[in-house]
Amino acid sequence: MRTTPYRAAPVGRAHLLDRLDRTLHTRGRAVLTGPAGVGKTEVAQAAAAEAAARGETVLWLAPQPADRDMPGAAAAALVASVPPSALDGLPGPQRAAVAVLCREAAAPDTGRDPIALRLGLARVLRTLADKGPVLLVVDDTRHVDPDSADLLRFALHLAPPDLRVLAVETPAPYGPDAPYGEPGTGPWREQGAVGADPEAGADGAPVALWVPSEADVLLVPPLQADEIAELLVHHRLASRMAGRIHKASGGNPRLALAVGRSLADSRTPVHHAEALPLSGRARDLARRMLAPAPPPVRAALLLAALALRPTAALVRRAGRPTAEAELAAAERAGLVALTEDGAVTFTAGLLPTTLVHDTCWTERSEAHTALARVVDDPVEAVRHRALATDVPDERLAAEVAAAVETVRRRGNSALAAELALLAAESTPVHLGRRRIARLADAAEEAARAARADLAVRAAADLLARDASPEDRVRARLAVLDTAGQGLTDLDELYVHAMEDSEDHPALRAAVQLRLAVKHVLADGDPVRARAAAVESAALATSVGDRHTAARALTQQARMDRVLGSPDAERTLAEARALETADRPLGVHNAAQILTIRHALFDDRLTEARDRVNALLPLVERRGPVEDTIELLHTLAAVEARRGQCAAALQHAHRSLALTLEAGLSPGPAWYTLALAETAGGSFARAASYARRSAQASEEEGDHVFLSRSLYALGRVQLVTGDVAGALETLRRVREGERAQGSVDPSMLRWHEELAEALLAHDAREEAETLLADVGPVAERLGRTTVLLGCDRAYAQCLAAGGKSEEAAGLLVETAERFAAHGLVLEQGRCLIALARVERRRRRRSAAQQALHAAAAVFERAGAVPWLDLVAESPARTEAVTTGDGALARLTEAEVRLARMVGQGASNQEAAARLYLSVKTVEARLTRIYQKLDVRSRAQLATVINTGPAPRSSGAAAGDETG
């Protein structure tokens, strides 16, 4: 027994906790079940925390493995944990029996009165329940000793309804009907393990404290890939590998964290780590899961692990006559899942990897040989033949190389990369040039498949040989191309690539192109990025390399846009012309996708949407997954901007799923989801995704998406009223964008948001200065809708300066112009701002009319969070415009300060909470006193808490200026 641990809800378990709470309150009993490490205890802890927060008594019984052999140990621990008052009313025999139980739980006592002991424990629990609701949590029923189980069953049978019970159990991996005997007998005993957890009791089986019905049992499922990513962020582990960690762990949180920590401890650069390390805790956990399997089951599992498409029939043909029974036993142990057609899937990817790793070469070779004889696909057959031997063979290597072409035509880029490397490694060493050429091909094949681990293996082998500069550069560029957003640890590769390409213009053009990407993403330096792109384009053009020239001009156009150059569109048109003639394989970093992005930045949203929709089907059929992700990112952003909220969410979620599956950095996908959730989902989820995106981008050293994710977060903080948080976040965006030399205000529209945050913080002059700075730039570049956003913020500055009528007119005009551009969410925001201005003018009807108009706009768009925001506003408007409407005379910043002071905060406390100086608080408080005509904190509290203050004879009805 230990004290109850109170924790917040575990990642991804909110719905399960709701179900658990309903089950406990309707049935009084619940069982949490699932494999070891899936998070059952964490869910129980969260349920206990919720119960304690409601004022319930929580008893937490957590018997340990050693307790299983101590008769009465669990029952004694339970009694020892209850308040002494619960024992006061026990009759003498029952008190004596309970006392003996507590004193001598470690050794049997023949003097116990079993009847008195049963009645005593039942009465203790009833006494507790009579004082209020009680939740008893039994964490891991496997370790409850038989005597205690018997006592608890009796006591719970007599317990009143106010005593609810939550049992946590881990099912035994193999039941009595397992084909190799019961656990602890026969082959199981020879394996030295009797359950999924070696620390389990005598038979590893959970103890039933009551006869559960189907409704009592709740399975704790594995986490989804996005939830694994959130879990990694929560534990401050790198989130880039979330997709592959999810596959490796099967969604098991304990295994996922072990893999994540193995990655962190390995000191391997994240972009090299697609082949997850089999080390430390992760490997130990996988071995513990595999340990109970006897040799026949392990043999069947090994064949399944080595096959590309394992089925029970394939395993049987490969030499396991009882394959179905062996795999069924493994399924009961939670190691694999079997479909109706016999397909075999390991529940966690680390299981087959560990199994293969721990199997000797001879057994692996024999298994590959057996599989090569029975598979029906020539590609699979040659793969198994190559893996069955460690002797290089040119004939075999040529067969594998030919299979690469076949697999590539099928669209299986990952298998093509594996086979390309296998072909190179199967090439005899004396054929040095041929082996080097195949290694270079393998590195590039791995880059196309986004398999950094294979690219690094191929490059390392090639660079250790006497390769030509061209092959060395090809290998290094392949590694760079698989790094994704994470380019901060690769400086040495760039240096060597530059050296090797010195006398080769085509190679130097390719290297300079990669440097252009690095300078903007990792270095945050668009000036250097543009210079590298210009040099790359010139070199590529000089040797007639249209493909590289088009990509370099595209990068140049991107930097021209960032830097506010009017040449951006001309350069982009040149890139498009070359691209049309070159017919590139993909769209990632291509001119056609940048053309779409420019249309998005300019709010030519219909054009952007139509272009994406024309490309997407073709890319999904024939292009790499990165291209599909890029198009989905863009389409989600377009739909969110257009106010097509449901479509934006759909595209954003799909892009995240593909990102995690591909093992790419989730930072960009989380940013896109933050935008989509802000438009049509939930402000809370939007903030969560934005924070995750910021952390992932910081991990990657990605300056571009760090600014974007912070912008998304600051925007949500602003609209939800966290002005101090929004101000801090948006100032970080401003600092980052200025450090990167960004000029064009249309690419990330933080200026209008920061201006509104400054205004809400009562920094009107600073807000006006910011708007005055950005306006001429937007005017020069023709960024019409940027100017509209600035107009919305400037109108609120006018209102804060006492020019409410002028402000209202500008907001009406700006809302209409936003609507004309199809920017319905921006239109709605203008209407909300208009309602606030009208409220402060004490024009109640006009304020309500503006809010109703905003609600209609948001409802048509499906903008759920904005609709919820507006739905609250009429009540607030009603409250502050009733009677004299005292608070309506204050700015929002003044209202926040007034409420704090009215609730007892000192000037120093208010200054700290609002991130202001004490002098600013004092000056603002003086204005509040003047506007409300109060002379003390007590009078201010009266106004805030009970209604309007009495007006002095000198106050006029229309004297509001703020």
TrEMBL record:
CDD domains in the cross-refs: LuxR_C_like
Superkingdom in the source lineage: Bacteria
Provenance organism: Streptomyces kanasensis
PANTHER family recorded: TESTICULAR SOLUBLE ADENYLYL CYCLASE, TRANSCRIPTIONAL ACTIVATOR DOMAIN
Name this polypeptide is given: Helix-turn-helix transcriptional regulator
SUPFAM superfamilies: C-terminal effector domain of the bipartite response regulators, P-loop containing nucleoside triphosphate hydrolases, TPR-like
Start and end residues of each HTH luxR-type domain: 883-948
GO cellular component labels: cytoplasm
